[in-house]
From TrEMBL:
Catalyzes the initial step of the lipid cycle reactions in the biosynthesis of the cell wall peptidoglycan: transfers peptidoglycan precursor phospho-MurNAc-pentapeptide from UDP-MurNAc-pentapeptide onto the lipid carrier undecaprenyl phosphate, yielding undecaprenyl-pyrophosphoryl-MurNAc-pentapeptide, known as lipid I. GO terms for cellular component: plasma membrane. Its cofactor is Mg(2+). Its EC number is 2.7.8.13. Signal peptide: none annotated. InterPro entries: Glycosyl_transferase_4 (IPR000715), PNAcMuramoyl-5peptid_Trfase (IPR003524), PNAcMuramoyl-5peptid_Trfase_CS (IPR018480). This is Phospho-N-acetylmuramoyl-pentapeptide-transferase. One of its GO terms (molecular function) is phospho-N-acetylmuramoyl-pentapeptide-transferase activity. It catalyses: UDP-N-acetyl-alpha-D-muramoyl-L-alanyl-gamma-D-glutamyl-meso-2,6-diaminopimeloyl-D-alanyl-D-alanine + di-trans,octa-cis-undecaprenyl phosphate = di-trans,octa-cis-undecaprenyl diphospho-N-acetyl-alpha-D-muramoyl-L-alanyl-D-glutamyl-meso-2,6-diaminopimeloyl-D-alanyl-D-alanine + UMP. Belongs to the glycosyltransferase 4 family. MraY subfamily. Mg(2+) binds at N192, D267.
Length: 360
């Protein structure tokens, strides 16, 4: 919205600053961060008053989690609210990729909100049936995948770009749409599975968003793409503003989610943020790199898949409990120890993913 102030600029005044994505990204970060600090505690007070007993705790979960009974959920409303406010204020609203990631974020956030509401109102861990959540998720992802494809340059449409390999494109044809759908839905659910300890999910999401924001900015600039030998996707640079807002909103939320958490993000936050990461990767043609940058989420999701399949086949468990962060809890690791070590892993993977921009 503030970008339109450039209409009054003669090129040598303060209004000219709003032309720069980097300046507006800084503004989005600060706006989202301040939003989180201002509205965080009031939102927690409202959620605690409305939810009463808070988020239901799994009876088969780690014993240490029973002490968290009564902690309110739906804290993702704070992140999404900060993200939406900062993006609408600082991003160019004539950019289709900005509206694409906002559409996915809000839509998955609504699915998560419905799931959280069902859990706290019925005081059980079931929520909205999984098939319903997946069905709605794939519908949203189908719209977003087709949307992104229509705004990609014609040489890149329906093609999968491979990292490291220079100028390599796999023509998937119409199969690109279901592939992109899987990326978005998979990312949403992987982040959802990771959100099991205080502060565990939000920092890796922020790290991944920051990394993807830099990548989107790079592939959206023709001079950068020529230097880095990556594919040019005009318009994606504006996604950096969205990612900066996500980072700021995430920090504001982490202030209240740090152990011991005063609020959980719930499915409202985890599905929204995971879907956003998937949408950014699809928009920037870096779907495979998302698997590296968000490798922690991939491992969390795989641990659940492996556990379920192996148990059905043998009646035995590979892990003491899935997702894998619960496995380490069962082994006696302290919660802050698991969280901080997982943060370190997320940062290392992000650096590896970022390096693929130059390694050709």
């Amino acid at each position: 919205m503030l970008y339109w102030l450039t209409a009054w600029s003669d090129g040598g005044d303060a209004f000219n600053l709003f032309r720069y994505i980097t300046f507006r990204s800084g503004g989005a970060f600060m706006t989202a961060l301040i939003f989180g600090f201002i509205f965080g505690q009031p939102l927690i007070n409202v959620l605690r008053r409305k939810q009463g007993k808070g988020q239901p705790i799994r009876s088969d979960g780690p014993e240490s989690h029973f002490a968290k009974s009564g902690t309110p959920t739906m804290g993702g409303l704070l992140i999404v609210g900060a993200l939406l406010t900062s993006t609408l204020l600082w991003a160019r609203l004539d950019n289709p990729f900005v509206w694409l990631v906002l559409f996915v974020t809000i839509s998955f956030g609504l699915i998560g909100f419905a799931d959280d509401y069902a859990k706290v109102s019925k005081q059980n861990v079931s929520g909205v049936p999984g098939k319903v959540r997946l069905g709605l998720g794939f519908l949203i992802a189908a719209i977003a995948s087709y949307w992104a494809t229509m705004y990609h340059p014609e040489p890149l449409q329906y093609k999968l770009a491979l990292p490291v390999f220079k100028d390599t494109l796999l023509n998937l044809g119409l199969f690109f749409i279901p592939f992109a759908m899987f990326v978005i839905v998979g990312a949403a659910n992987a982040v959802n599975l990771t959100d099991g300890l205080d502060g565990l999910a939000i920092m890796p999401v922020m790290i991944a968003a920051g990394t993807l924001g830099v990548i989107a900015y790079a592939v959206g600039r023709v001079d950068f793409t020529e230097y880095l030998d990556v594919h040019y996707v005009p318009g994606t640079g504006e996604i950096l503003v969205f990612c900066a807002g996500l980072f700021g909103g995430g920090l504001g939320f982490l202030w209240y989610n740090a152990p011991p958490a005063a609020v959980f993000m719930g499915d409202t936050g985890s599905l929204a943020l995971g879907g956003a990461l998937g949408a950014i990767a699809v928009a920037a043609k870096h779907e495979i790199v998302l698997g590296i940058v968000g490798g922690l989420f991939v491992v969390e999701a795989l641990s659940v898949i492996i556990q379920v399949l192996y148990f059905k086949r043998t009646g035995k468990r590979v892990f003491l409990m899935a997702p894998i962060h619960h496995h380490y809890e069962k082994k006696g690791w302290a919660e802050p120890q698991i969280v901080i070590r997982f943060w370190i892993i997320a940062l290392i993977l992000a650096m590896i993913g970022l390096a693929t921009l130059k390694v050709r």
